[in-house]
Amino acid sequence: MLKQRTLKNSIRATGVGLHTGKKVLMVLRPAPANSGIVFRRTDLDQLVDIPAKAGNVSQTTLGTSLTADGGTVSTVEHLMSALAGLGIDNLVVELSASEVPIMDGSAGPFVFLLQSAGIEEQNAAKRFVRIKNLDEYRILNEDGLRYEDEFVRHKILDAIGDLYLLGHSLIGEFSGFKSGHGLNNRLLRTLVADASAWEEVTFETLQDAPISYLAAAAT
Ligand SMILES: [Zn+2]
Questions:
Q1: For FRET with 9, which of 118, 154, 196, 209 sits at 20 to 30 Å CA-CA?
Q2: Minimal CA–CA distance to 93: which of 122, 113, 123?
Q3: Do residues 111 and 85 make contact, with C-beta atoms less than 8 angstroms apart?
């Protein structure tokens, strides 16, 4: 069974928000299976939990912000990208301010933190969102502009983080042309609203799927 993952131990980091300039303490805590990634504001009158879901995206200029229950967290995409890359399904991200620390501007420091805390497999099957109807959701142009390599890499970093707001790892193909946080969120909202375009699967369900899906799941 391909299992869900969380952290072995809690780990903390301090930094500043890129846009607010505010100092923020971030604590990453293990979370139970099937609970997903949840941001938690610890500095408000009461704890406010903000699930990392596409439907909670409230702002997409200068980064992706999430809002729920009157609490907002900004610039979630680089951390989300690191979580997607390491296949972490369940985690509580406590923040003492409204913005995730920017660290060095990449996902590298988050990957280092997560690996330092250790990754733990949980006794529940990992769930994926498999795209069934690829053509309908294409934001793409093969002859698009060529960006500087680092710019392209950063766009990919942002897109991986934004797409992880689906709530599960994605089995499908993504192409972007002049994509940004706003377009990424519109894509997810359109996709989520069309239940015929995707299905939630586990690796076990995929055993019966055509070879191409297995290849996608393995990469
Ligand atoms: Zn970015």
A1: 154
A2: 113
A3: yes
- Domain that includes residue 82, residue range: 3-124
Region 54-70 average pLDDT:
96
pLDDT in tens, 77-91: 999 999 999 999 999
CA–CA separation, 87 vs 22, rounded Å? 29
Between the CA of 187 and the centroid of ligand 1 the distance, in Å, is 18
Which residues are catalytically annotated? 181
Tell me: do 130 and 100 sit in the same domain: no
Span from the CA of 163 to the centroid of ligand 1 (angstroms): 13
Q: What are the backbone angles phi and psi of residue 158, rounded to the nearest 5°?
A: -65, -45
Query: How does the average pLDDT of the chain come out, rounded?
Result: 88
Task: For residues 58 and 106, give the distance between their C-alpha atoms in angstroms, rounded to a whole number.
Answer: 22
| pLDDT greater than 80 at residue 217 | no
Looking at residue 208, which CATH number applies to its domain?
3.30.1700.10
For the chain, what is the domain count? 2
Distance CA 149, CA 155 (A): 10
Q: List pLDDT tens digits, range 165-211.
A: 999 999 888 888 788 999 999 999 999 999 899 999 998 877 655 54
pLDDT higher than threshold 80 for residue 162: yes
Domain-ending residue, one of 124, 144, 172? 124
Gap between the Cα atoms of 131 and 134, Å rounded? 6
Residues 89 and 144 in one domain: no
